[in-house]
């Protein structure tokens, strides 16, 4: 008896060969009508003549040449199959049913073992798993539940590969509900694996859980303990085997990744060599070294990311002939980008030179950076027509700071015109402020009733301090804080312009995407409620609303008492809170919704003097406040945020190699014009009865 395939394509069975033996091969040769054997040279020539085909035309592929493969002796087949790799053996077992019957027979198990042994360092198959199933688990990429292809995640502890849709059908999380329903002892008997798509928690197979629970219910107490001990050992063995399989798979992935990277690198070098032969060597050397985000911002593709370059196939002459035109077009595009990028960097370099010249001019003329003056910033200087023409001149000649000396000699008339325009732009946003400007002139900016607030909701994100710091400094602003408020001069870069902008990037204390911008009052809004409260406080003090400035109120240091919060007027017995005039306005907003009809008392001279003696000196509070800036970094790239006086001295020592004993105010550091003055904090006291009186002449 020998194994031969039947004529039925579906079934295989054993049948003896006929006693007459196999027919001669000559008897099976087909003969045409002319008596010429089919397949002979003469027969083929006659076919060509009849059909009119050319002799050099490509012949059709003949089919079915391997249909007699199953009829070969098994020892020869097994010798051939044993030299294949597991993926090849899996594919072969799915070609025809006769081959599948041969490979899936128990007698062919050594073929699978030999194929798996051909894989270097592959761990052994888990206990209880057949060799074909193990090969399928390791190399197939389809779901074991619905057979959908492209499933890359295998759960080796559970011996299964599932797609995301089949996870909940086959997996059950080992969560609190599972413990309450089945107990902790059941979990010990179940193989488990962490499933990311199910909350990154450990899960078991529902079928295994059902089988384990069914067995446990049939056993008595002693048998259960023994069964759990055996199953726990089995689970530990499966877990250890799964760890080995995962390690091997990771090594294979890394090895394959290195192999593909090597092929891509060789292909890239080959393409570069081909382009150099065509005269593109200089452009190849000048290709930008951008990261992914920077290349995306400039809307370009990197050379190594080009589809023709990153393809992991060796470059051949035929492939080069197909991609040659595309690569030349890409190099033409990159040449245009190079010229554009070089122009961009040239302009940025000229801007830095202009800012350095402007900074030196300001330090040589300290009035321009004093906190009491309102002058253009670096971003405004760069958009000045005189400076802009120098920066954007079409030549590629290198510039120096001296090239901007002509513009700096005419900077003061431009500054005055710029300042006048911006002040009118700000004050004419409200009729009352416009009236003050007409009545008092530029002095209207300094009035105590000139109160502004910032409407920029992103203002708190421009520096790295707490919300309370921002709230205290930007809730309500008087002169000169509102003119130099950071939102007037800074903005946040959008994602698409992060790598290609030409603005001044700010430094320490700011977020990395904060830059200077030309001065704008779009976020400043007159604080009408605060203006009314200030008016009422001035009337209580007997001061003129039309002439009293915010600086005068700070110097007076009047302390106010809220009658509503103190439940009556002060009598020298009850403890009350004394507020400065700025804190009194903030208190009205926080506690009384900005009401201007509150009743206030003014602390007497004697009680005010007592409070001052118990408070820290104003100079000490001023030095410890973040109210100082580096004059050497003013309007330059990487300008830091406000610092304390000691911090700015340390900054000068570290960044500018300045001797701490030699630093001078105004020349080396200045008070930040956007920082409010350091005033006394609210104090609890027991003052005597206060009276309404005029504070003129108190200073």
UniProtKB/TrEMBL annotation:
Residues 18-65 are annotated as: Disordered. PROSITE patterns: FBOX (PS50181). Residues 66-115 form the F-box domain. Residues 18-31, 43-58 have a biased composition (Basic and acidic residues). Coiled coil: none annotated. InterPro entries: F-box-like_dom_sf, F-box_dom. This is F-box domain-containing protein. It comes from Coniophora puteana (strain RWD-64-598). The lineage of its organism: Eukaryota, Fungi, Dikarya, Basidiomycota, Agaricomycotina.
